[in-house]
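Bumping my old thread because nobody answered last time. Still need a sequence for this structure:
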């Protein structure tokens, strides 16, 4: 690998940026992809600059723009910052790159369990660690730019605001303004971090108050850290900084970590992260904080007890706000609600008929793959003149800690609350040959099905590689598969997926390997 030092510049408060000539080399180096042939821009129909203008180039917006162009629409995508949006620059991708390094470090540290001898002590080179993260982000971002070129999409850099329902004004970073007229718009402006109020808490990076934005662009490994929020973002960053050597405490208001998932998963994750040294405080709140010389004194309240902790950094793992400010949305008739842009129904149309909204900006499900699926649905509806609705029945939800967590469909308590006669099947990874072979035996698969027809309602997993395994469960739910059908589906041996088959078998009452 070549030294990225000359090709990237990392601003202190943002992800790395690359010089144009270096980017192509970097993409080729990381992904092996060369510059594609550029497609010519199409002509827009009528008196418009474009058939569809997409505002925002996150996983919602850039995917929407590409599909619109593939379907023959003249497409413009306006982005005020970086191609790839939150997900690629500050969210999904940088956090997973960081997780991968920590996981690899832990593999090396524990290699002797597999009979592998490592001389000397394995440790993180923080500078190289962050540079690798920047490189992957840059390569991915450049890849989106290349796809825009290949599909003949014009990428306009700047902040978009509406003049009327068919016209936006884009203000570039240099202050230059451009008016763009389009038949249709897709709002894909995403969301941004906010500081949730905590009595006594003030300041930003310099004062040791971080959000996920500061965490993925960290300039150091803090000695100690309190993470507020035990959702996906909080536990993933907790896993990273604990692995890097910080003394991490996670404070979660709900009774379990990852409260949006089946409670069995949250309980198990709490136990397994606790075993790695992360202090888990569930059912607890951060009552107030006081500034100290080296950081923060934190008052963590659980029931009648208050625990006082001193930490260098407080990481706010919760709190995001839809990006709707200063765009004149309400002026042109787009209705907003407390969490973002209101869509009339799951066809993703807003209160203005030629304007659609997708992804985080709607304040609904805040996941990259949902934003992308919504983007495809919205532009397909526009181009084909349809009002087909999104199907949210089988949306996978993943947490990329080690062990990983994944889930699709109804949790046990949701299924019970809906009045289903619920049957549950479970299988622990511990007994399976593949889990033993790779020395990753923690966790389980849990199946939630209904008794009458045996339909699988939900699949919930914690353990090795379960974020990849969930795809099979997503297909099962979409196809309305029964637990018998899934139990009879042949799974390769030896694989971790055998635990899924065993859990389906357990739900039918015939688990082969149950003692
Ligand atoms: P965004 O990605 O936020 O993109 C919106 C874009 O619009 C931005 O680039 C912004 O600059 C631009 N924009 C805003 N206003 C304007 C304007 N007026 N004019 C022009 N441009 C504008 N999700 C997952 O599914 N998996 C994960 O593993 C995952 N990990 C995450 C980890 C972290 C730390 C965080 C913070 C989030 C994570 N997410 C994850 C959530 C995921 O990042 C979001 O759900 C996803 O980015 C939403 O996509 P979007 O296209 O709706 O918006």
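Sorry it took so long. Here it is:
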């Amino acid at each position: 690998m070549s030294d990225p030092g000359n090709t990237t510049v990392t601003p202190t408060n943002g992800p790395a940026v690359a010089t144009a000539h270096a980017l192509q080399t970097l993409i080729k180096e990381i992904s092996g992809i060369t510059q594609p042939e550029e497609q010519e821009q199409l002509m827009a129909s009528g008196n418009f600059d474009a058939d569809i203008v997409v505002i925002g180039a996150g996983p919602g917006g850039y995917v929407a723009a590409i599909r619109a162009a593939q379907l023959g629409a003249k497409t413009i995508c306006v982005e005020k910052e970086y191609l790839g949006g939150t997900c690629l620059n500050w969210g999904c991708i940088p956090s997973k790159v960081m997780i991968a390094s920590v996981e690899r470090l832990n593999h090396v540290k524990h290699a002797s369990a597999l009979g592998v001898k490592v001389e000397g002590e394995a440790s993180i080179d923080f500078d190289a660690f962050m540079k690798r993260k920047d490189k992957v982000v840059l390569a991915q971002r450049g890849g989106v730019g290349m796809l825009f070129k290949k599909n003949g999409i014009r990428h306009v850099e700047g902040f978009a605001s509406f003049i009327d329902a068919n016209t936006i004004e884009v203000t570039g970073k240099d202050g230059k303004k451009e008016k763009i007229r389009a038949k249709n718009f897709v709002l894909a402006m995403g969301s941004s971090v906010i500081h949730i109020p905590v009595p006594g808490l003030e300041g930003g990076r310099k004062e040791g108050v971080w959000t996920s934005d500061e965490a993925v662009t960290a300039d150091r490994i803090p000695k100690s850290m309190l993470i507020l929020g035990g959702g996906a973002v909080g536990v993933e960053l907790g896993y990273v900084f604990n692995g890097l050597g910080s003394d991490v405490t996670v404070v979660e208001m709900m009774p379990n970590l990852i409260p949006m998932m089946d409670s069995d998963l949250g309980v198990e994750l709490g136990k397994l992260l606790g075993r790695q040294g992360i202090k888990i405080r569930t059912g607890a709140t951060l009552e107030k904080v006081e500034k100290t010389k080296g950081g923060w004194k934190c008052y963590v309240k659980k029931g009648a007890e208050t625990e006082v902790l001193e930490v260098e950094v407080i990481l706010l793992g919760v709190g995001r706000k839809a990006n709707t400010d200063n765009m004149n949305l309400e002026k042109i008739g787009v209705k907003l609600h407390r969490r973002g842009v209101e869509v009339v129904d799951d066809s993703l149309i807003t209160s203005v008929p030629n304007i659609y909204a997708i992804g985080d900006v709607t304040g609904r499900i805040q996941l990259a793959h949902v934003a992308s699926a919504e983007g495809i649905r919205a532009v397909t509806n526009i181009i084909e003149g349809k009002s087909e609705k999104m199907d949210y029945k089988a949306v996978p939800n993943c947490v990329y800690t080690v062990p990983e967590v994944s889930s699709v469909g109804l949790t046990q308590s949701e299924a019970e609350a809906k009045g289903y006669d619920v049957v549950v099947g479970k299988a622990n990874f511990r007994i399976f040959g593949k889990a033993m072979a790779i020395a990753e035996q923690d966790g389980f698969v849990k199946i939630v099905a209904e008794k009458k027809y045996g339909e699988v309602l939900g699949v919930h997993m914690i353990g090795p590689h379960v974020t990849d395994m969930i795809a099979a469960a997503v297909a099962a739910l979409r196809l309305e598969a029964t637990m018998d059908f899934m139990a009879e589906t042949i799974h390769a041996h030896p694989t971790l997926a055998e635990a899924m088959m065993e859990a389906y078998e357990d739900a039918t009452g015939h688990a082969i390997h149950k003692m």
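DSSP finds 14 helices and 26 strands in the chain. Let me know if any region looks off to you.
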